[in-house]
Amino acid sequence: MFHVVQYQPLRQIAQNSLSSMCLKLMLSRPVAFAQIWKSWFSSHNLVGNKNIILMGPPGAGKTTIGRIVGQKLDCPVIDIDDDVLETTWNMSVSEKLQDVGNEQFLEEEGKALLKFSASGSVISLTGSNPMHAAGMQHMKKNGIVVYLDVPTAVIMSRLKSMKVDRIVGQSPGISLKDILQFRKQFYKRWYDIRVLCGGDIAPEVVAEKVLDAVKRYQNSELETFISTRSSRSGRSMEKDSHKYFSDVVTEGLAPDGGLFVPERGLPKFTAGEWQSLIEATYIERAQVILERCIHPADIPASKLAEIIGTAYGENFTCSKIAPVRHLVGNQFLLELFHGPTASFKDFALQMVPHIFAYCIPRSCNYLVLVATSGDTGSAVLDGFSRLHDTDKQRIAVMNFFPEDGVSPIQKSQMIGCQKENAWSVGVKSDFDFCQTAIKQIFTNSDYTGFLTVEYGTALAAANSINWARLLPQIVYHASAYLDLVHQDIIPFGSPVDVCIPTGNFGNILSALYAKMMGIPIRKCICASNENNVLTDFIRTGVYDLRGRKLIPTFSPAVDILKSSNLERYLHLIANEDGQLVTQLYNQLENQGHFHLRKDLLEKLQQDLVAGWCSEEDCLAAIHSVYSTTGYILDTHTAVAKVVADRLQDRTCPIIISSTAHYSKFAPAILRALRIAEIKQNPLSQLHLLSSYSPLPPVHWGLLETLKKKGNEDHQVCAADMSMLMSRIETLIQNHFM
After folding, report:
1. How many other CB atoms sit within 10 Å of the CB of residue 45?
2. Residue 443 CB-density burial (10 A; 0-12 exposed, 13-18 middle, 19+ buried)
3. Domain-embedded: residue 564
4. Which string of DSSP letters, residue by residue, matches 530-564?
5. DSSP string, 560-582
6. Where is the secretion signal located (predicted)?
7. Which of 37, 184, 345, 626 would suit a FRET pair with 161, their CA atoms being 20 to 30 Å apart?
8. Residue 411 is part of which domain span?
9. Do 452 and 530 have their domain in common?
10. Residues 6+ apart with CB under 8 A from 274
């Protein structure tokens, strides 16, 4: 058996390692020696008895990088090819492959791994080791597997320069590129950490990235969350009550009424890392980005891959998931309506239920509360209804929507999406009441405590106040930019503007987060309808609800006056001054307005510009675009199109977020297209639209939902807190007891 002797005790190694010069340094310059000792100790503590196992395709640089990492850590370095296989076989790897053939070679290679044992070492695997399951399971028992993720085009170029034209597993008629793509499934199965490696990155830089990634992997306590309303002094006194990703997914709203944000901010990607994703699929991009935002201690990479695959694998009608389509001039549409419920909310809400089910403790039932201005409701209901049956028994969802404040098709959709663990309640008020009611319920400790003690049920949130809702939205903003680069519309690094129809500020905040992470977004254009409180605020710094009443419009998803996620952005530009945020929102709650300081307004206006669109202009834009291109915008996208036309300076491309499919708003679309006969039945409206052979076609998911019989009833409730709380209690009794 090939064996590397385990480390001696740290103190003994230190004694053996110290030279006489170090001893003199310790005596003569104790401060300098202490710094050296601290560096030495931290490096060895990083590895301990665990191995760092480097995995990746041939040409990824595993051997070279392994040696550099080993030197930095002063620990043994083992190359499986040279130090294990060739020693075991007494012949070169190429000779062995020629001798036994592909299939037997993989088996022999796996057997050698099973006999191999080491600890506290840096190990460089062969490119084909991950294809032997038993061998890799053996290696993972005492190792952290680091995947050196190099773009296939870069690997092809490197292998060509090395004059390698054939690798293990490659048969006649199968190209080198095909076998490299085939192997990726095995790499993705085994790794704990991914390190992105671009084309021109030096091995020394990759080695540093490996060490940083391992440090992150072993230090989950560094990735904590704080409330937007917590003070710095309060944080230092509450170090024992850290909140991690799993906690904030479960809890939704912070106990002080604020929103959770990562204490150390979001991860930054280098230009090279973004460029390595240009050729990637949407699912691959999502995996890479979300791995950096969610610590593996909360969700391991393999589980995250499973969740992403489930969310986007078969539930979206377009294989590109979030395609970018040229509209006119330098305007591009980011189509976010190909999910099962035809809105951008599907991107988060096909994922969040599975994240939630993984993160929550098994000892408690959970009721997820959500308020919707239209699209969120059906997306939440659909997403949670797709959970495994065992999860449905312990997780239910209750959706509150303004009974008379959504489109007929949206209401039909929410009612049609009700399942055994998912219900809709129409509230005789507007969205702002629904959202405020949920916040008040969450911060009512007597009520939530009663539900936990009496029924063993905890409450959770699925609105964009929940941090997990925002992360998948960052992905599609980043992916849209990478698609423009991939289509040769722009070179990487050239700026774009984005224009987003904005209500609760979550979607546009995700674009701002993508910008912070390294995507070259110049300006985020906030597009409002006649409920233009955000437009006024961005222009003046005054958030003023006094005398404002919500105006029902053709674009109900942005019929919002209190934009919850704005709080996260204000916390960001105020340098995490939770006391200031608390002051602003207390003033908004008590006096109906607040005024932003001049310096903060200047910061805000570096990121954001804003405009609004009338109902007439919205319908006119739908008609104009259809007349000139044959493409039908939904009412929210039309709002963004009008504002983009007014505010863009045409010096760079602009990506307009198409947040919903026009099918959801058939009466307004039929009116915009000047079709005289508008039938009241939602299904008939969709059939009428379909007869015009529109682009894109009528959404299949909506048609299927509206065709279903049953589940046509839903509860209706007055705008009264005690009645809402009573409905919640009744649902808990019926489902969990």
Report:
1. 11
2. middle
3. yes
4. S--HHHHHHHHSEEE-TT------S-GGG--SS-T
5. -SS-TTHHHHHHHHTTS-HHHHH
6. none
7. 184
8. 360-463+713-736
9. no
10. 478, 482, 492, 518, 519
> E-strand spans in 115-270?
122-124, 143-149, 193-196, 225-227, 260-262
Spacing of C-alpha 320 from chain mean position: 17
Is the pTM higher than 0.85? The answer reads: yes
User: H helices of 428-530, where?
Assistant: 431-442, 445-455, 467-486, 506-516
Same domain (yes/no): 624, 522: yes
Distance CA 223, CA 243 (A): 9
Q: Cβ atoms within 10 A of the Cβ of 162, count?
A: 10
Distance, CA of 727 to chain centre: 32
535: exposed, middle or buried (C-beta count within 10 Å: 0-12, 13-18, 19+)?
buried
Residue 721 tokens read as: 């807190």
Judge if 419 and 525 occupy the same domain: no
Q: What is the pLDDT of residue 238?
A: 53
191 vs 210: CA distance, rounded Å: 13
pLDDT at 15: 33
Strands of 41-178 (E only): list them.
51-55, 77-79, 122-124, 143-149
Residue 361's Cβ-count burial label (10 Å; 0-12, 13-18, 19+) is: exposed
Q: Is 634 inside a domain boundary? A: yes
Cα–Cα separations (whole angstroms), residue 597 to 411, 573, 586, 602, 666: 41, 11, 16, 9, 43
Question: Same domain for 104 and 179?
Answer: yes
Q: Are residues 146 and 206 in the same domain?
A: yes
* Six-digit token string for 684: 């008939």
Bridge partners for 247 per DSSP: none
**Total of domains in the chain:** 3
361 preceded by a cis bond (ω within 30 of 0): no
The type of residue at 626 is: Y
